[in-house]
């Protein structure tokens, strides 16, 4: 499903890729995730096995002959990666959406895609500002914009929906990070005074869980294996402003949650379902994937479910919440309709 070229008239000065290049086919599995070629990026910031396209932001124009089911270039999608990661983790997701006729933009969040040390000099406001700018840019050329994100990317799109209200047509999250019950996270502000970073290992850790948490054999993500404590402390600040404001979201929300996740705890999912009270919210469970589910065994469930979500909502302009609050639907299989309570 090769997407078309970039949208004409895009804002100059921002990196774009729309050629679908990922390097040699032998370096990728069927769905697109890179196979292990020597382990995680080094502590010095190297990226063994990674190619330049893996680290770059991208914009994909919607295919005109992709059987979009009514989707057209009036609908855009803002797609976000997570903390320490890169657009690589959501690239295949974006390609699927573009093949369905949607214009997709994925920025590289500040401090990412270079060295982990660069992540220590930015915080959640820098990430959010970049997301808000990209959203506003998409709005200029599209009648409606959906926002979707993985992990911290999911947290950021939820915050965007809180701030932007009915300007957001719908939200899709995959294992969004909204808090932690790990005792070690409480020590981050103090520990950050004496320790610069913590290493995320394949076995997992007390603070940030497992690096490249993917169940599918031989598949890994592209990202830092070192987490600056300043960045993690800023993520905690993002939780603190996002969770109390979830009730402000007025657009439909679809969230995918892995049954087993070594990075984000189940309590994040509970916070989301309990907090979104002014809009319909649906949770779909992913039984065969870990945290980076967009590269894992259930990725096609995410991709197809996202398209169906947009198809159901795109004909209707984003408006304030309908009368009444929709009940939460937990759907382990195909998406189930969410109906407002009487």
Automatic annotation (TrEMBL):
Residues 1-12 have a biased composition (Low complexity). Keywords: Hydrolase. GO terms for molecular function: hydrolase activity. The keyword Glycosyltransferase does not apply. Residues 77-296 form the Serine aminopeptidase S33 domain. Residues 16-38 have a biased composition (Basic and acidic residues). Residues 1-54 are annotated as: Disordered. This is Alpha/beta fold hydrolase.
């Amino acid at each position: 499903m090769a997407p078309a070229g970039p949208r004409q008239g895009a804002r100059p000065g921002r990196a774009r890729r729309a050629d679908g290049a990922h390097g040699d086919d032998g370096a990728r599995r069927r769905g697109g995730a890179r196979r292990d070629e020597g382990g995680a990026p080094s502590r010095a910031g190297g990226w063994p096995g990674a190619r330049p396209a893996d680290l770059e932001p991208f914009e994909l124009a919607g295919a005109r002959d992709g059987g979009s089911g009514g989707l057209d270039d009036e609908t855009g999608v803002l797609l976000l990666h997570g903390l320490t990661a890169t657009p690589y983790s959501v690239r295949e997701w974006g390609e699927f959406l573009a093949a369905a006729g949607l214009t997709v933009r994925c920025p590289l969040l500040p401090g990412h895609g270079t060295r982990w040390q660069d992540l220590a000099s930015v915080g959640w406001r820098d990430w959010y500002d970049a997301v808000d700018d990209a959203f506003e840019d998409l709005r200029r050329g599209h009648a409606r914009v959906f926002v979707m994100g993985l992990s911290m990317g999911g947290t950021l799109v939820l915050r965007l929906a809180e701030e932007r209200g009915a300007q957001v047509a719908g939200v899709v999250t995959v294992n969004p990070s909204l808090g932690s019950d790990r005792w070690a996270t409480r020590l981050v502000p103090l520990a950050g005074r004496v320790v610069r970073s913590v290493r995320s290992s394949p076995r997992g850790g007390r603070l940030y869980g497992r690096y490249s948490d993917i169940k599918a054999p031989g598949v890994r993500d592209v990202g830092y294996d070192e987490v600056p404590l300043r960045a993690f402390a800023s993520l905690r600040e993002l939780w603190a402003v996002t969770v109390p404001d979830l009730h402000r979201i007025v657009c439909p929300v679809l969230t995918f949650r892995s049954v087993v996740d070594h990075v984000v705890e189940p309590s994040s999912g509970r916070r989301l379902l309990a907090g979104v009270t002014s809009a319909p919210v649906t949770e779909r469970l992913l039984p065969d994937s870990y945290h980076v589910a967009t590269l894992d065994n259930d990725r096609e469930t995410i991709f197809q479910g996202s398209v169906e979500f947009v198809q159901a909502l795109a004909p209707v302009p984003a408006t304030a919440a309908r009368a009444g609050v929709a009940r939460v639907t937990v759907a382990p299989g195909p998406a189930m309709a969410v109906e407002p309570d009487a």
